[in-house]
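On clarity, I found the account of how folds are encoded harder to follow than it need be. Since the whole study asks how a given chain folds, the encoding of that fold should be made plain. For illustration, here is how one protein appears when written out as sequence plus structure tokens:

:::
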Amino acid sequence: MEGSLRKRSRKSWELCIEIGRGSDGRRLRKFVAVKGTKAEAQQKLRELLSSLDKGTPIDNPKTTVQEFLALWHEQYVKTNTSPRTQEGYLEKINGYIIPTLGNVRLTKLTPQHVQGLYSEMLERGLSPRTVLHAHRILREALGHAVKWGLLIRNVCDATDPPKPQRKPMTSLDPDQARRFLDFAQESRYGPLFFLGIYTGLRRSEMLGLRWSSIDLQSKTLPVTETLQRIKGRGLMLLPPKTDRSRRMVTLPPSAAALLSGLKVKQRDERIGLGLPWQESDLVFTHLDGRPFDPSTVSHAFADIIRKSGLPHIRLHDLRHTHASLMLKQGVNPKIVSERLGHSSIAITMDMYSHVLPGLQEAAALEFEKALQPENVGI
């Protein structure tokens, strides 16, 4: 944070503090009037800058929602969230919240203002799920405004954001999965898609795998990094989504064999082609060692789905395919939850509730079978 002061009259000073930039790229500045000597004004400026460095905003009734959100993002979001989350927050703050509420004074913000934001977003054709994301971000930010003493209450608590309908879970059945893998085997991305079905890893988790961490002997791989493209910063290796996303995943024998073959193939290609090699230790790379770009992987997946004639699904649905097939095979949901890296088994049970009715019926039949005598005497 930077600040300056300007003399307004004999014992009156105006402090100017830079607090970031708005959605239009213009500088956002806070002006505070101080009466007293120059030394007293300089002391006040130091105190305000120190408070901002500690994450405590300046208590100014003229602060707008835009100014507060810029300060909140600078002081809280940047130090407490991942780069990908920061990017998502900025996208929704600048794209949805500021155009409608940016000029409203923070202390004058009402539930009606916020409810109007939701209506305006829906009228623009945005989905209820997008509106709910904006609501959650604004609610979190205003929660800090309350904690910092800038607001008495969080007006978002008095609003009713739309409830998005749950999208039906899409996955491949065993025959469809085999058909997809038959078409994918000729693609350089085929091994990645194979691993997606056989482990349930997220796209970013697979792209962040390193050879040095995989134990092909014991058939295990740790999920400790993800590869993601961050706007303005390019491809970055980042920690997993949550603490529970850090996990050890056991490989089926065929997946371990595939990775072993891929490792040998990469070594032979590197030697045979004689191309300049960019060492990264990553498992999934181009011929010259450069990492796969996430968007390119998704485009290649979509091409294979079209060629195979299978119903349209997303790359992420390979993860759902892995989970659904395991549950249908009778694998304990807790184990499935651990393999997927969910924060709790409740999330797994909720997401895959469509699989459970059939499993419950089978379990009831198995229970009755267990209580029946093996031989019925006359």
Remarks:
- The chain has three domains: 1-54, 60-165, 174-362.
- The mean pLDDT is 88.
